[in-house]
């Protein structure tokens, strides 16, 4: 026999959030416009803003992920600007 | 049976002259004295009461203490003309000591008084007590901004009412606590009832114990092949202080295929990663170690593998070390973790700080939450990985989810604590907001200014208890069904309900594992009592002697550990780990111990002297070299006899090589003390005065535990000890040290729960039959509570002449089954007679019924009140004037008295009105309201009176159409809001009749198939006729041998005038009973020659006949009988309604239809499905085939679209079909009927 469905369905379980691969640009302040590309074979990772076309590259290790390249860029920019705080 | 004759051992003992009789071993009979003492002390609902007491006296205060103070700093409001406030002055509100008062109630007129439980039940009130808190207001002034010097002026603490807490009956805070029998009876309470429930809005609510997985336990599981991971270690870590939810940690070993594609893959080997709280990606374990400050790989390996010789384990770990080679310093590791958290696009320093915070506060909080815990967290994290590797190497099996040692049970205390935490937090938050507003408005912040809203706690505790939705927030989900209405069908069902455990796993789950009886359930959970069907095995019941720990502080144990050379992890090196045992306290690794044996025996010794709390468990796990000590709440444990420890090196055999018997710590003298205590107590209740001579101190069960005669053992510890099943096994124990008993069962019958303890000889039944009886025992009628006359339960059955069973079990004494029995000792013959007892029906003696056999009374109560719903007109209880009322009920109003209530003693038949109630209707629009004659002072007539219009709506309550009876009681009172509130109780006597349901105590249920007067019943030579004849076919396939033995023993008992003992796992044999029965001149197997009642000829076979305890179950034909010709139909489809209560039809369903189709009975099918159901006449346009307009009065038919007034056909179809066509037309589909 078919059971009656409950009127209120339980809320779906929150999925474990994944790491971002697309970021906000810290220069032009557009959202979700910085794409990261990792060339593992050449051990080079880069981030580039689709809007203002700022680009940053770094050598990556096997453990690095897009967020590492992006964070590295953020750190670079902070250094260039003489370090906030 | 009698307890003389069993006391051998002492007086008949061979070694009499050498032995002090006081020091002699106890006999099996003496063990029952101990059990008596246990239940005298604890009763059957102690777990509930203990848990609640702990909540009110300890937990609530702790939650208040741990909550932060309210700090108010004045803010500038920028109001022109007003100065900015002094920002150097702040107000701190501190919540201090909590106090509870006596349960009370404030009437609507402001009169306050103590509230007794039965008042609350009758008037639909909530039995609760006001909660006060000493709140201190402190004004802090910053004197010197340079040094930060402050000056605080505290006001006197003020007692502030912060809410009402529902009171558990018979708890320490209940008015009934420690009252004697007479006092209880005078308050309308039953003296046998043991409390353990709440009264919310007049209904009794139980909190079901909720089962869950234990926190701070590491579980390692193997994943099935094809999964991304091959092994997983999981744990939920919960700090014992700090009032925070548990945080979970998972360490996973990737499968080979997943490893090959993983980041940093170097080929070969499997990587191990960890999931940290708030970190979005899995972190390689070595990076976590680095982040904790473990710089070199050797150190990391030492904390995981411990033993550098262990090449296998090193090999398994190697890939993970290599993977993290690129990250070598702590800062890099912290940054790596920080980047994967919620900190995107912030500076490196911030990311590192974030990662540090996570590791300090969120990662393994049970190890510690401050800084400087890195080393200990490293050790623990390493241990988790060590466990994972051991399982991966096959050195240890994976953990068992269903092991009961890995489970915890939340009772009323923890459940209420959850709510109280939420409510108190919300209350302080709202108070802070309100006070801040007052402060900003320039007003003085007062503690009594209505800022602290008592409603938050009052409602937050009451609502979940009333509905069972376990969350203080009405909207938010939470668990459901936690609180249930206490089952009051029979007393055993009430007791069983109070000892129930629920596992909140989806009922639809197909997985059989969590439902199965586990070995570790022994002695803790009843093996028989569980529901059938969806909840089978998920709903459990506590065994009789099982109790639930409330939790004790860990500090005393920690102190002992410090004293007893447990090497702290700070002081030791990982090299020492393989040569010593790891010591865990509540799941936290606190140190290592090089002498685990000595350590354990000291620890046990302290517990047996009750220097350390007796509910603490200490487990020595030899295979894993671990010592685990638990003192948290929610563990199931049970008492066991302790066996005397032999001094080290003492002989285990005598000079002839015969093993020396092991001896219990309990001796005859203790039993003598128990007996004396019991005797004195009885005298005291009779004389109502304490006896004079008194050096004598009552010797009770807790005393035995304190003096180390008996020990509480939890599920986990149970596996590390040797328990002998019976006392005699101790005497026969083999000489080998491996088989040395350390404990002894008090009695194996105690593994059963409440309902299974009622079954005589359950050890002789097929196991599912015991489960069936456990379910049926809850539907048996009896005296459900001795105070039934002063209660107004919505439904209640009471048996007229209940009898204590002839064949009893020992445990029944504790269930008070003799005081409140639920059956009758009927003379039962197992025979075929006239054929009216086939297929589980029984023949019953009509003469017996006429004399009162199984006669019962059914009470049904109706409640009604003048409560006014929001925005609606006032309701009045009165005798309605039927002529001016709308929605008048079909029954008669004649039985109502002047006051609108029926009189006690009035006979009521189906549908009669019991309480008259009306409500003024709003006048119809457009009607002018006539002015009252101002001069005469006469009240204005109702707006529509005299116009033949209805002025009131009838809201009366009438009896159900199928039920009749006599008005037993009418109660008038005021409810919570002060409105008039009435309850009416109907009574109807039910005589057994054909169709009523009965059962023995062995899962053998049946309905009455025929009643015969005694002259038609078969009889024995003595002229005995059976009360019940059951069919022999009921026995073989069901294998309920217990019933046969019960019958045989019942026969012996009735002849000898004794009460027979049918406790399971005793030494009674059928042969013993048969011999005794033979001795009294009867056939040893209970057979008798019987004579046919109609002919007087002997029956062909001899008949097995004897008294068997039968239960009358609450299912009776009169409540089920139903038939219908025509009657009410549903509005939408015009098909008959469903259900007896609404006078519905009997469904001709799919299967019935299939039957008719296969039979070829097309006309019959059509008749059932249409003619007799929702036949409807429709007019159809012959041109377009759509439904035409028909004016039946004028006999005019037309189809507007076709302009057709002549070619119209009349069609019959089900109304549902017509409805479908119209719905189709509404969505632009034209169903054309071409006739």
Automatic annotation (TrEMBL), chain A:
GO biological process: transcription elongation by RNA polymerase II
GO cellular component: transcription elongation factor complex
Keyword Metal-binding included in the entry's annotation: yes
Molecular functions (GO terms): RNA polymerase II complex binding; translation elongation factor activity; zinc ion binding
Compartment annotation: Nucleus
Classification via PANTHER family: TRANSCRIPTION ELONGATION FACTOR 1 HOMOLOG
Functional note: Transcription elongation factor implicated in the maintenance of proper chromatin structure in actively transcribed regions.
Protein name: Transcription elongation factor 1 homolog
The organism of origin for this protein: Pyropia yezoensis (Susabi-nori)
Lineage: Eukaryota, Rhodophyta, Bangiophyceae, Bangiales, Bangiaceae
UniProtKB/TrEMBL annotation, chain B:
Protein's name in the database: Uncharacterized protein
Species: Pyropia yezoensis
Lineage: Eukaryota, Rhodophyta, Bangiophyceae, Bangiales, Bangiaceae
């Amino acid at each position: 026999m078919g059971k009656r469905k409950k009127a209120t369905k339980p809320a779906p379980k929150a999925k474990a959030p994944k790491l971002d691969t697309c970021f906000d640009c810290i220069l032009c302040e557009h959202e979700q416009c910085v794409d990261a590309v990792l060339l593992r074979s050449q051990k080079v990772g880069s981030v580039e803003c689709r809007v203002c076309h700022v680009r940053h590259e770094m050598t990556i290790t096997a453990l690095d992920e897009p967020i590492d390249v992006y964070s590295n860029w953020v750190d670079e920019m902070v250094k260039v600007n003489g370090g906030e705080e | 049976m009698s307890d003389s004759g069993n006391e051998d051992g002492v007086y008949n003992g061979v070694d009499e002259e050498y032995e002090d009789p006081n020091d002699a071993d106890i006999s099996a009979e003496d063990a029952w004295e101990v059990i008596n003492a246990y239940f005298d002390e604890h009763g059957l609902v102690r777990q509930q009461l203990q848990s609640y007491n702990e909540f009110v006296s300890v937990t609530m205060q702790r939650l208040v203490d741990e909550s932060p103070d309210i700090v108010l700093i004045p803010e500038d409001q920028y109001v022109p003309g007003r100065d900015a406030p002094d920002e150097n002055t702040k107000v701190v509100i501190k919540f201090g000591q909590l106090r509870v008062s006596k349960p009370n109630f404030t009437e609507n007129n402001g009169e306050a008084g103590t509230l007794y439980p039965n008042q609350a039940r009758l008037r639909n009130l909530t039995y609760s007590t006001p909660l006060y808190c000493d709140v201190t207001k402190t004004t802090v002034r910053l004197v010197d901004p340079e040094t930060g010097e402050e000056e605080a002026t505290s006001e006197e603490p003020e007692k502030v009412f912060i809410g009402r807490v529902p009171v558990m009956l018979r708890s320490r805070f209940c008015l009934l606590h420690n009252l004697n029998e007479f006092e209880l009876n005078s308050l309308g309470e039953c003296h046998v009832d043991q409390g353990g429930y709440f009264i919310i809005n007049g209904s009794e609510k139980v909190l079901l114990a909720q089962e869950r997985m234990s926190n701070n336990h590491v579980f390692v599981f193997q994943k099935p092949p094809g999964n991304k991971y091959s092994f997983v270690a999981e744990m939920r870590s919960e700090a014992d202080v700090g009032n925070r939810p548990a945080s979970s940690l998972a360490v996973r070993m990737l499968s080979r295929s997943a490893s090959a594609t993983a980041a940093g893959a170097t080929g070969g080997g499997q990587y191990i990663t960890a999931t940290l709280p708030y970190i979005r990606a899995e972190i390689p374990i070595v990076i976590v170690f680095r982040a904790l400050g473990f710089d070199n790989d050797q150190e990391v390996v030492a904390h995981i593998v411990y033993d550098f010789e262990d090449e296998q384990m090193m090999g398994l770990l190697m890939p993970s070390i290599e993977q993290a080679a690129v990250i070598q310093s702590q800062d890099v590791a912290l940054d790596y973790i920080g980047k994967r958290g919620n900190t995107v696009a912030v500076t490196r320093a911030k990311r590192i700080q974030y990662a540090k915070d996570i590791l300090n506060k969120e990662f393994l909080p049970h190890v510690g939450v401050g800084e400087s815990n890195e080393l200990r967290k490293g050790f623990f994290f390493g241990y988790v990985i060590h466990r994972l590797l051991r399982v991966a190497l096959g050195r240890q099996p994976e953990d068992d989810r269903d092991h009961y040692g890995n489970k915890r049970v939340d009772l009323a205390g923890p459940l209420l604590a959850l709510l109280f935490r939420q409510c108190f937090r919300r209350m302080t938050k709202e108070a802070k907001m309100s006070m801040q507003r007052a402060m900003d408005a320039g007003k003085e912040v007062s503690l009594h200014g209505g800022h602290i809203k008592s409603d938050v706690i009052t409602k937050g505790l009451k609502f979940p208890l009333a509905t069972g939705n376990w969350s203080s927030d009405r909207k938010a989900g939470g668990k459901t069904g936690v609180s249930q209405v206490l089952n009051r069908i029979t007393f055993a069902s009430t007791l069983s309900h109070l000892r129930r455990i629920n596992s909140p796993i989806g009922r639809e789950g197909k997985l059989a594992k969590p439902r199965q009886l586990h070995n570790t359930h022994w002695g803790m959970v009843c093996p028989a009592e569980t529901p059938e069907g969806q909840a089978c095995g998920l709903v459990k019941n506590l065994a009789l002697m099982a109790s639930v720990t409330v939790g004790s502080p860990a500090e005393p144990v920690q102190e002992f550990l410090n004293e007893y050379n447990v090497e702290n992890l700070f002081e030791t090196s990982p090299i020492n780990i393989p040569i010593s045992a790891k010591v865990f306290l509540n799941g936290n690794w606190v140190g290592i111990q090089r002498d685990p044996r000595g350590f354990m025996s000291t620890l046990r010794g302290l517990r047996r002297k009750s220097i350390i709390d007796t509910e603490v468990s200490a487990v020595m796990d030899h295979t894993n070299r671990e010592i685990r000590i638990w003192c948290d709440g929610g563990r199931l444990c049970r008492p066991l006899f302790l066996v005397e420890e032999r001094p080290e090196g003492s002989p285990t055999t005598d000079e002839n090589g015969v093993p020396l018997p092991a001896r219990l710590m309990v001796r005859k003298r203790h039993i003598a003390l128990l007996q004396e205590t019991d005797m004195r107590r009885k005298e005291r209740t009779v004389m109502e005065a304490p006896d004079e001579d008194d050096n004598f101190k009552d010797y009770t069960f807790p005393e035995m535990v304190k003096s180390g005669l008996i020990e509480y053992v939890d599920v986990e510890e149970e596996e590390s000890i040797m328990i002998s099943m019976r006392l005699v096994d101790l005497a026969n124990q083999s000489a080998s040290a491996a088989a040395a008993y350390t404990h002894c069962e008090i009695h194996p019958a105690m593994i059963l729960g409440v309902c299974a303890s009622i079954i005589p000889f359950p050890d002789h039944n097929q196991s599912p039959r015991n489960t069936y009886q456990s379910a049926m025992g809850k539907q048996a009628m009896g005296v459900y509570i001795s105070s039934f006359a002063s209660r107004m339960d919505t439904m209640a059955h009471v048996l007229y002449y209940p009898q204590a069973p002839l064949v009893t079990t020992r445990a029944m004494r504790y269930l008070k089954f003799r005081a409140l029995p639920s059956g009758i000792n009927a003379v039962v013959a197992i025979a075929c007679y006239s054929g009216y007892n086939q297929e589980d029906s029984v023949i019953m003696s009509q003469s017996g019924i006429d004399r009162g056999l199984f006669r019962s009374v059914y009470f049904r109560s109706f409640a009604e009140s003048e409560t006014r719903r929001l925005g609606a007109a006032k309701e009045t209880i009165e005798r309605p004037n039927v002529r001016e009322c709308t929605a008048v009920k079909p029954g008669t109003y004649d039985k109502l008295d002047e006051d609108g209530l029926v009189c006690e003693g009035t006979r009521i038949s189906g549908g009669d009105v019991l309480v008259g109630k009306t409500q003024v209707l709003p006048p119809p629009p457009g009607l002018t309201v006539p002015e009252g004659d101002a001069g005469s002072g006469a009240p204005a007539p109702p707006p529509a009176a005299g116009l033949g219009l209805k002025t009131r709506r009838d809201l009366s309550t009438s009896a159900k159409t199928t039920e009749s009876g006599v008005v037993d009681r009418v109660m008038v009172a005021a409810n919570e809001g002060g409105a008039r509130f009435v309850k009416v109780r109907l009574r109807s006597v039910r005589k057994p009749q054909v169709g009523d349901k009965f059962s023995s105590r062995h899962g053998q249920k049946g309905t009455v198939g025929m009643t015969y007067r005694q002259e038609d019943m078969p009889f024995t030579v003595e002229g005995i006729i059976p009360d019940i004849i059951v069919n022999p076919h009921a026995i073989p396939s069901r294998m309920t041998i217990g019933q046969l033995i019960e019958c045989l023993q019942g026969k012996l008992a009735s002849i000898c005038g004794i009460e027979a003992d049918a406790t399971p796992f005793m030494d009674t044999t059928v042969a013993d009973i048969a011999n005794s029965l033979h001795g009294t001149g009867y056939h040893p197997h209970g057979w008798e020659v019987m004579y046919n009642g109609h002919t007087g000829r002997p029956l062909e076979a001899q008949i097995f006949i004897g008294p068997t305890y039968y239960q009358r179950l609450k299912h009776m034909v009169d409540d089920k009988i139903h038939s219908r010709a025509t009657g009410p139909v549903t509005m939408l489809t015009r098909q008959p309604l469903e259900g007896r209560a609404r006078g519905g039809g009997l469904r001709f369903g799919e299967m019935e239809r299939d039957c008719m189709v296969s039979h070829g009975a097309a006309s019959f099918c059509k008749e059932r499905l249409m003619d007799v159901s929702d036949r409807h006449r429709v007019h159809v346009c012959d041109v377009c085939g759509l439904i035409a307009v028909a004016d039946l009065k004028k006999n005019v038919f037309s189809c507007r679209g076709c302009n057709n007034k002549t070619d119209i056909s009349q069609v019959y179809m089900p109304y549902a079909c017509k409805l479908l066509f119209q719905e189709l037309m509404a969505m632009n589909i034209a169903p054309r009927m071409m006739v």
